[in-house]
User: Fold these one by one.
Assistant:
Number 1:
Amino acid sequence: MQFCKLFMLHFQENVSLKAYNTFGIDVKTSYFIEINSETMLFELLSDEIYLSHAYMFIGGGSNLLFTKDFDGLVIKNNLKGITIDEQDDESILLNSQSGEVWHELVLKSISLGYGGLENLSLIPGTVGAAPMQNIGAYGVELKDVFHSLKAVNLKTKEIETFNLEQCRFGYRESIFKKEAKGQYFILSVTLRLLKHPKINASYGAILTTLDEMGFRDLTIQNVSKAIIKIRSTKLPDPKQIGNAGSFFKNPEIDEDQYQTLKSEYPQMPSYLLENANYKIPAAWLIEQCGWKGKRIGNCGSHQDQALVLVNYGNANGSEVYSLAMDIQKSVKEKFNILIQPEVNIY
Ligand code: EPU
C-alpha cells in the first residue's frame, strides 16, 4: 500500500540566510525549509533532500556565526504553542513548543503571574535553543526552572523525554552540545514556574535599576522591566546592529593562576566557584587587551560591552571570525587564558 503525503514540503533553493542570523551575515544555503508542525518534521525526516544533504536546524539564529555558504539544507523551526500542562498549589508546568520566541514566553509567564523567568527577560533566541546552552543571565539559568523536554532522536525517529539530570546542564553547556551533539531535534520544553514567586534581585545592577525606575515593589513584573532596561542599555539591539550577544564564555581558572593574576591586576573582577576555581569576566580580559570599542573594517568589539562582537553592516563571517581569533590570541598572550567562543561557528 502506498501512503499519500500529508503535506507538500516546500523547499526553497539558494536562499540568503541574512534575515535568519542576528549577526546579519549574508551567506547562502542550497536548500531552506520552515517546519510548522511535528507531522511536517517527520515527513521531512524521510524526504530525499533531507536524507541526501548536510542539514542544520536553526531557531532565532541568535547564537550563530556563518563564515561561508552552507552546501546543504537549513531547517527553520517554526513549531508554536504554549500550554499549562499541570498545576498544584505551589507551581505550574508550562509547556512551550521549541519554535516559540523565548522572550515572548517570558512575557506570557509574567502576564499570567508565574515566577521564575523574569531574570531571563529579553534573551534573544527561541525556546528550543534555551536548553542547548542552558541560557543564563542575572543570577538565573534555565536549569533552575527546567522540568523536562521532548526531543526527536534523528536516527531512530523516536520521541524521547529528557529530565533535568539527563540534560547534564553546566555553564552554557548541555548534553545536546556534547555527547548528543547533532543527534536530537528539541520539540518542546516544560518549565516549572511558581505561583508565589521568589524574587532574585541580588545580581549586579537590578536593585539600583529598580530604584532609578521608581519601583518600590519587588514583583516579577518590575524585575523583568529592570532587566529589560539593563540589557537594552548595555547590549546592542541586533535589529540595529548585528551581533550574537556574548561571543566568548567567561573562562574558569584555578586558584594558583588566580593568585598570580590578582597580584599583578588587583582590580581584576572574579567570582569564586563551588569547585574552588575562579570565573573571570571575558569582557574584562578583552577590555584590558585594548579591544573594547575597537573597530576593524566592518566589525568590532562593542563600545559598551567588550564581549559582544558586532557587525557594522557589511561584515562577512570570516572577518568576524578573524577578529575573534585575534582577540583570543591577545588574551592568551597577556593573561595565559584561552577564552572559548560561546557562539556556534559554521
Ligand atoms: N566588564 C568589563 N568590560 C566590559 C563589560 C563588562 O570589564 O566591557 C566587566 C564588568 O565590570 C563586570 C563583568 O565584566 O564586572 C561582568 O559583566 P556583565 O555583568 O555585563 O556580564 P558578563 O559576564 O559579561 C554574562 C553573560 C551574559 C549575561 C550577563 C548578565 C556570559 C558569556 N555572558 O555576561 O549573557 O547577559 O552575564 O547576567 O556568561 C549571552 O550569553 O549572550 C549574554 C549576553
Note: Residues 167 and 175 are 5 Å apart (CA to CA).
Number 2:
Amino acid sequence: MISIIGLLASVCAVAGCAPAPGQHYPLDTLSPKSDVTQKFYDLFVEITAVDVVILIIVAAVFFLALFVFSSRPGDPGEPSHKHSDVYLEMLWTIIPSIIVVMITVPTVRVIMQTQPDHWSTDTLEVRVIAHQWWWEFRYPSSGVVTADEVHIPVNRTIHFSMVTRDVIHSFFMPAIGGKRDVVPGQTNQITLSANETGEYWGQCTEFCGDSHANMRFRVFVDSADDFDRWTKHQLEDPVQPDAGDAAAGAKVFANAPCAICHTIRGVSGFSKEYTYGFRGPDLTHFGGRGTIAGAILDNTPANLAKWITNPDEVKPGANMPTLGMSGAELNYQVAYLESLK
Ligand code: CUA
C-alpha cells in the first residue's frame, strides 16, 4: 500500500512539472533545437524506454511474489530452505550486464558523435569567456564582441570554444547545446548546428560564487540574413549623441570610473582581446540588448538605473562598484547607455 501511495505521489509531483498549455519552460531540456540536443534527446528517450520495460518486468515479478506466490496462514509445511541456485545467480548477473551494455553503447556513440575533433570550413567560431558573473562572446572572424546575448545563424555549424577568466563555470543552453564545464587553464568546446530560429535561455550551472544563480545568458538563433545584419550593425561605430540627455550622459560616462572597465569602441576601453585581468562587458551596442546584468533584468531605463545605483542588490558580490550616481547625473548616464543601440 505504501508503494502505491508513493507511486501516486510521484505521478502527481511529475504532473505538476508540466507547463501550462501554450507555455514552455525556458530551461527545458526536452525541446531540442539543434543537431546535438536532438541526439541527447533521442538517447534519453531510448534509455527511458529500456528503463520502462525493466520497471514493468520488475513490478510484475514483485506483485506476483507479493500476492500470488507468498505463503498464507494455514499453508501446510515450512517454506523451502534453499540457500543457493547457480543458474539463478548466473541469470541475475548476466541480465544486469546486458542492461549496462544496452545503456553504455548508445551513450558512448552519442559522446563520440557530439565531440568531433574537426569541423567544416564554413564553421562559425564563437569564443566564450566566462567571468564572475557574466558571459562574454567574441567572434574572431568578424571582430564582434558582446555580452550575455549571443547570436548564431540557423543551420550552420557553430564551434564554441570556452575559457574562463576566473573560476570554474558551466555553459548550459539546454535547447541548443547541452552543457559543458568551463575550466581554468583549459579550452572546452561544443560544436553544433541549431535548426530553429528563436530566442533560447542559458544559465551557468556550476557553483561559481555569490551570484552563480544570476549568471544567465540568451542565445538568439537568427536566419542567415538576420545574422549578417546583426553582425554588420555590431561592427558599426557607437552612436555619438550631439544633444540632449544622452549627450550629457556621454560626458558623464567619460569622466566616471565606468570607462576604466567598460569598452565603448572609440570612446573607452581595451583595444585588444585578453582573457585575464578584470574588465566589464563591452557596451558599444548596449542599448540593442534585451537584457542587462547577466541577463537577469530586462533592459529598461528603470532597471538600468536600479543596476547602476546599487549593483550589489541586483547581483550580490558583483565586481561593479557602487558609484553613488543619482539625480540628473544618473538619468543622463542611463539615457546615453540606452542610446547605444
Ligand atoms: Cu558561473 Cu555559476
Note: Residues 271-276 have pLDDT under 50 and may be disordered.
